């Protein structure tokens, strides 16, 4: 770029001409959290469904009180004071990360002093408070600190089971006796929890279940010895580098050997279900006890992830019977919506067999399957199934794929979908219903409205009281005077795509602006949603520098547009999306006179980083500048479970794996490219970054790069990292994609 032009543009930015008010900065967003929403909850509905518990600060002792609110009247009562949570010999109360009640609400299980395990804080210390005796005691005495996971009361509340160091234990609350149920857990043997890929791609973390009578525990057992080990390298925390071994099954490699066993809650030998099929080439994706029985229901997913076989196993005889087989030509998703009905003679089941994601009622023997949520729309997620009330409550949006609303359908008779959310609240809605469906904690937000949490009565949706309005945040955001996101449609001929556009405050339609495209494009998510997203202040900030921001959802993204929309991407990750992103970009350029076709940039993170590379390498005539963060350069390097689900097995689709991987198109790079990665990325390995660097060097392509040592996939660990990431990106955009109107 001409030096004089650059200096004038830089002065334009610093002088604030692009801002109507100089009211927010990257420091505000990424260092000071100045636009963070207020925390609320977690909420737990009480056993009687007439009230709910929540956490509130106790300023006197700098701790947390557990309080109860009556849903109908709003009357507040103290359940557990922070003073009761001060351990003997200490002066400060426990800081509550999470909590659970026993079935009778007489005992409280507290999770504190937590540690992150890959994505989430699932390891820590657990304490139990007896509300009657006021006795407070820590679980797992003698076990390493902050090592307990997934602690759960027994059905009668007399014991707690938990995992520590890959073994399962049961602790008697009255005596304090601890019984190990497994003792073979270790580096390559996992009991009661899961390996990396089960956690990341199948949503499996808590790996054991109490039987309804409290006499047994069923659990997953994983043998990871055959999984290839990938090594992350820590070069910054000691003089010598430290390798961090990570069992991680890459595409085409061996999976964990997983089985499900049953053990007496008093200890003894485990017994194992002989689930048919090679355990190295199938997933045991779900398991739970059938209520009031000695049986478990197991979902077995084949390696191609296009067949889900449902088994019922008897823990007395260890026999198995097959009750249902769900098949799909492409891939299946696993759902957590299974509830037993009519005395355990039927269960609910989510399927896309009619082209839409719906809830069905299936007989215990699989002979009868009845559609419950009728209509040409997707059930986005189930909020609550109420057998006594006779309804299933769920989130859907038949007419606007960027929004979400509450509906209900009868479960005991055919009937149309009934919308519960009022029509004058456009945006995204979530509900936490009471057991009897009379009340719900309602969370509402949209692109310009931070989360507003209230208590509503159902089915009328009458608001009883506001619980958290985020009024101060709303006022602060509104004071910025930003242009709200515009949700638009982009017609690329074969279909119409959803997109959003953000313009600068001082936008002048008679001038030409650079276009900055934000992309994801893979099945795991959607970027075009009428949701708060922290105000999307990063993109709003870039818009005030003088860019028009656009994001487009291509086919295959996680939107409620039907089975064909989602499954169209099968076998062509990185191919179909890049084609449709390119077609949409061309349409936007041709239909918006204020866009400068000579200044087009694109950026994305993770799958969006891969998509950025594919777009830049495949269509260098359109995309002049790009930033790719934490990307997959070669799909063979990613984990088997995710990549094989959407691409098929490597031996069945070698061309797709090659053509969809940007590394094989790197020779076509023409524009300015910045690539960024964390060296401790356990998800998309730094290897992917280095392989692309090597290939670009091979082709003598010039590019920019930024490496973040010992940062993971989100590149947010350690001091100042998040701010540095955004400052680096901002600097690159200003230098390589001239901001401001012409």
Protein model, in words:
- With 742 residues, the chain is an alpha+beta fold.
- The chain is 16% helix and 35% strand.
- It starts with a helix and ends in a 6-residue tail after the last helix.
- Helix 7 packs across helix 8.
- Strand 40, helix 8 (607-618) and strand 41 form a beta-alpha-beta unit.
List the keywords.
35% strand; 742 residues; eight-stranded mixed β-sheet; 43 strands; five-stranded antiparallel β-sheet
Mean pLDDT: 95
- Residue stretches low in confidence (pLDDT < 50, at least 5 long) are 1-22
Q: N- to C-terminal separation?
A: 14 Å
Individual helix count: 12
Q: If strands are numbered along the chain, what order do they take across the biggest sheet?
A: 36-37-39-38-40-41-42-43
- As a whole number of angstroms, the C-alpha radius of gyration is 27 Å
How many DSSP E strands? 43
Class by SSE composition: alpha+beta
Task: Give a short synopsis of this structure.
The longest helix has 16 residues, at 576-591. The chain is an alpha+beta fold. The protein is built from 12 helices and 43 strands.
Topology diagram in text:
Blueprint: H1 3-14, H2 26-30, E1 44-45, E2 51-58, E3 63-70, E4 76-80, E5 98-101, E6 107-117, E7 120-130, E8 136-138, E9 148-153, E10 159-164, E11 167-172, E12 178-180, E13 189-191, H3 196-202, E14 208-210, E15 216-223, E16 229-234, E17 242-247, E18 257-264, E19 271-272, E20 282-289, E21 295-302, E22 307-314, E23 320-327, E24 340-341, E25 346-351, E26 358-363, E27 369-371, E28 379-386, E29 391-396, E30 405-410, E31 418-419, E32 428-433, E33 439-446, E34 449-457, E35 462-468, H4 471-479, E36 486-491, E37 496-502, E38 513-518, H5 537-545, E39 548-553, H6 563-567, H7 576-591, E40 595-605, H8 607-618, E41 625-629, H9 640-647, H10 654-659, E42 672-678, H11 686-698, E43 704-708, H12 721-736
Parallel strand pairs: 38-39, 38-40, 40-41, 41-42, 42-43
Antiparallel strand pairs: 1-2, 2-3, 3-4, 5-6, 6-7, 7-8, 9-10, 10-11, 11-12, 13-15, 14-15, 15-18, 16-17, 18-19, 20-21, 21-22, 22-23, 24-25, 25-26, 26-27, 28-29, 29-30, 30-31, 32-33, 33-34, 34-35, 36-37, 37-39
